[in-house]
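For anyone still unconvinced, we reproduce a single protein record, the chain in one-letter code, the fold tokenised, and leave readers to judge:
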Amino acid sequence: MKKIFLLLLISVLLLAACSSKSDSGKKESTGKDDNVITVWAWDPNFNIAALNIAKEFYDGKEEIKIIENAQDDIVQKLNTGLSSGTLKGLPNIVLIEDYRAQSFLKAYPDAFFPLTDYINPKDFADYKIKTTSFNGKQYGLPFDTGVTGLYIRTDYIKEAGYTVEDFTNITWDQFVEMGKVIKEKTGKYMLTLDPNDLGQIRMMIQTAGKWYLKEDGATPDLAENSALKEAFQIYKKMYESGIAKTVTDWSQFVGAFNSGDVVSVPSGNWLTPSIKAEKSQSGKWAVVPIPRLSAENAVNASNLGGSSWYVLNLPGKEKAAEFLAKTFGSNVDFYQKLVSEVGAIGTYLPAAKGENYTKGDEFFGGQPIISDFSKWLEEVPSVNYGMHTYAIEDILVNEMQNYLNGKDLDKVLQDAQKQAESQLH
């Protein structure tokens, strides 16, 4: 009897163990509720607000579960999860900054679900398609544009004898020269500069269709980069001529134009809400195309920032792709509400003809700034941001300090090239 009892007990335990393994394996293989689409994004006032509007326009049965994470946390969690070889615990959809996208696509191509069959790439700005595609496949759904403009105080430039037209389609050298006149006549700084943030350099070199990397997106292009050399020279002119107010963080940057200390702000269109935050300045601002470098092929259009949506190769990926396709990928009415309620300008080109894109903004003297930005975004040169934008910029920040302190510019760029080659290869 004892033997029979033991045999029965062992059989029960084995069955329980097998059942447990089977159940856990099933959970791990799906890992998700078929009726829930999870999304990771940052910034409740911008990206997450956009998602909530998208939910209103989605007619699917699935619940869209939005999980807020800081951008740096998303990057860390993605790298940790993807490098471990498992997608467990990751969302169906994730927002990735454009400067970082190629590094993820190149390192983990099998982790992302292609959206080639869900959207028409020709409906989006060319420069965003280059950023969000890899090896001939479209992986990202382009979202907001970082198309830049030059915000200018019309009252200050008038006091110095200039008009808005004088600042339209100019070069950076012309900008500096006019800045000197304005500083002399009004006492106002032309712009702010933060030596630890080279967004200004990024804006300048992209007007000439250049980046820190060659077309392959991996090889550093610093020592022989004529656009980068000119951008450094202009930066130093601004710094040494006294037309720039030095700031060290975001609050000082915003405070400089909200307080009326600066005449202009070259930046991405996402800055508009911060400009309009100082209601007493309504009617005193205009926006013109960003200045360009002197290269023959340079244009008065550039980009700063921007992000796009990606679907991870998880169960439910088709439903996640459909959600994006029916909202961010094709819905003009969605974009009208997005631009009016959030101020987010998407890179979906058909939306630019909508009423909310073409109406004037009283704060900017009735100028239809959304329509203007939408025109400029179509002119932004396509560049390959590649895998190492921020790593190279860390090097350039240090070398910029050396340059401002008197180091020869050719030597600055040569040393930066050597450091980049050493660290990235």
User: Anything to note?
Assistant: Residues 124 and 348 are 5 Å apart (CA to CA). The radius of gyration is 25 Å. The longest strand covers residues 36-41. Confidence is low (pLDDT under 50) at residues 1-31.
